[in-house]
Design a protein that fits this description.
- The complex is a heterodimer.
- Chain A has helices at 2-23, 28-36, 124-128, 246-251; strands at 43-53, 58-68, 72-79, 87-91, 94-99, 104-107, 137-147, 150-159, 169-175, 181-187, 193-205, 208-218, 225-235.
- Chain A is an alpha+beta fold.
- The N and C termini of chain A lie far apart (72 Å).
- Chain B has helices at 2-10, 14-54, 64-67, 77-86, 119-125, 151-157, 192-197, 203-210, 230-240, 249-252, 254-292, 294-302, 307-343, 351-356, 369-395, 399-402, and strands at residues 57-60, 90-104, 109-117, 132-135, 146-150, 164-170, 176-187, 198-202, 219-224, 245-248, 345-346, 362-363.
- The radius of gyration of chain B is 31 Å and the shape is elongated.
- Chain B has 16 helices and twelve strands.
- In chain B, the strands form two sheets. In chain B, strands 2-3-8-5-7-6 form a six-stranded mixed β-barrel, surrounded by four helices.
- The chains are: A alpha+beta, B alpha+beta.
- Chains A and B meet through loops of A and strand 2, strand 3, strand 6 and strand 7 of B.
Amino acid sequence: MRSITLAVLAAFLTFSCLTTAQAQELTAKDIIQKASDKLNGISNKGLMKMTVVRPSWSREVSMKSWSIGDDYYMILITEPVKDKGQTFLKRQTDMWNWMPSINKMIKIPPSMMSQSWMGSDFTNDDLVKMNSYVKDYTHKILGTEDLQNFECYKIELIPKPDAPVVWGKVLAWISKEEFYQMKLEFFDEDGKLVNRQESFDIKQFSDRKLPSRLVMTPVQDEGQQTIIEILENDFNIDINESFFSQQNMKKMR
Amino acid sequence: MIWSVAWRNVWRNKLRSLVVVLATAIGLYGGIFMISLMNGMVQQKIDASIDNEISDIQIHNPKFLEDESVQYTINDPNLVTKALDENAEISVWCKRIKATGMASTAHSGNGVMINGIYPEKEIMVTAIHNLLIDGSYFIKKSRIPSILISQKLSEHLQAEVGKKVVLTTAALNGETAQALFRIEGIYKTSNNMFDEMNVFINAEQLEQMVAPGSILISEIAIRKSEQADLTTLTNTLKSSFPQLSVLSWQELSPGLMAMTALMNQFGYILIIIILLALTFGIVNAMLMVIMERTRELGMLMAIGMNKKRVFLMIMLETIYLSVTGAVIGVIISMATIALISRSGINFAGWAQGMESLGYSAHIYPVVETGFYVFLGVMVIFAATLASIWPARKALKLQPAVAVRDES
């Protein structure tokens, strides 16, 4: 009698294991969701270096950053001296800039969102990221590809017909393990490649591994590139939403 | 008698007189034509600004003019629109909602003024629908709303008709609003600055982004009827709506007014300088005349022609000379301007530079009638001035010496 119960139980367990395994067959949407949620709600403090490369010159900007997921950002420029002390604050879809040299706080209006951020290939809009890769697109797995020794899902994202998205198509390479966004390619409506964003050098930062180098290449403009390197990163630090305030912006060192 | 004698004297030395007459004519012709071009340029800019951009009169919430924020709307729009409909001096008006924002495509983004319009009324007030270089003007009824952008902006955004444009603006509640549009048409005015800044969408679409469910009016643009006087109408409207800012195009765009005044002054100064230079030429010619005719003048005086008549004769000769030149100059100018103002002159080679300053490169020259009156007065004045010296010189001749002059 008892053995029967055990056998039934065992059979049931096996079966349920099988169904879980089947459930783990991820849809394209799940993969994108997991990749976007990777840092969701996780507080983070870091040191970064941004290099803006142009055909005839390049410049380096060092900064400190604090963030909670993608929703709250505070970035303090520490170098070069000219821009030192400039602070950027992002709360959800709003962005402010504090310029100590002229003692002025600017709320970046929508009309300035297209301007380049600190002279780089990122725009203010890229930082605010109004669009959601999960919500505004339909997703399709095109296959798997190896990138920098990572097995990646190659996923095609097509904007929903009335989503306010400028791209015609986005291709994303997401690693199977850990769901790193290894590469993103942005296409216009004619299928012409516009921007390429790549991640390199996965490194250990406190309790987790992350790509430490992000390279943004505007493909149409030869010799242009922006590289962001993460030098230090601490996770789950003791800050909350109220840290990201205009008062705090002026106090950051 | 003395009049016809003077006229005949002018033509005694045909070559010299002709040279002076032609110099005067060509000098004035150059000046007048130059001025007609400048006038035409400024006039066209003003007409184009009124037709495409500012209309005759605009009404706003006074605060809107300070920071062009979408929250400063016209309160009680129905009261205002009713009064406008009843005013016989107003030929047509339209309302708009305006918000600053960003237009972006995959390639680029640009800060813009988003004009939410009611196309069926807008076409009666502005001429943008006549200035399309591609596509159509709000006739498509597709699921994705239409946007009209300028050629300049379409180059910058690298987007043609049919392509996507995302507009971002601040909603009334302070949040950022985004919406997707497709380019339905591309327009081009002669003012690059206007073109770069302005995009047009349906008013409902902009309201949808800024404050769903409400009707907002940021601006009312008015075209006056043909016979109405701009200043009077503006003042009437000002007193009807004391809480609103009612401004005529002259007040809205003082730069345009200043430009007209400046061009006028420039024209007058140019003509004065040309006439001054011509005066010296005429003086020179007349001094020659006196020298050549010393004997004759001495004889006239000796047989009893009094000093007043001698003076008058020389003076008349000078005036005939310059006025003949001036009349010929004006006739050629008028003919040329009348001929050219039909087709205009196209300075296509300089189009880019001129259009970046807001001027059309295709110029239709014009000269106001008032200018010819001024010119006539100035020519007589200059001629009289030029005649004083030679006439005085003639007076100073001693008849006894002069008749013996051997030259």
